[in-house]
Amino acid sequence: MSIEFFSTSNRIKETPFTSRNNEAGVKKYSVYNNTLIPTVFKSLKTDYLHLIKHVQLWDVCCQKIIEIQGSTSHNLIKY
Question: CB 3.0 to 4.6 Å from 42: which of 2, 23, 46, 58, for a disulfide?
């Protein structure tokens, strides 16, 4: 897939797996958490049928790890 219409920047980032997704034939991307995330490889229906019958690995680099610190952090987490 060509992502010429995307200009990666500080606002839209590629993941370490974007080039592999392109090699695998990704057809559509979405932007989640300022990060390109592949959404369609063959078609929505074909991808769904594959998902319910087989194991899939997903690029989840758009998820961020956060750390809550401070004397009242436990109260915030419990809330």
Answer: 46
Residue 43 tokens read as: 């078609």
Q: Which structural domain, as residue segments, surrounds residue 40?
A: 18-78
Q: In tens digits, what is the pLDDT along the chain, a chain of 79 residues? A: 445 566 667 888 889 999 999 999 999 999 998 899 999 999 999 999 999 999 888 888 888 888 999 999 999 988 7
C-alpha to C-alpha distance for 31 and 35, rounded to whole angstroms: 5
**Residue 12 belongs to a domain:** no
Reported pTM: 0.66
Q: State whether residue 63 is helix, strand or coil.
A: coil
Name the token pair of 76. Answer: 């915030």
12: exposed, middle or buried (Cβ count in 10 Å: 0-12, 13-18, 19+): middle
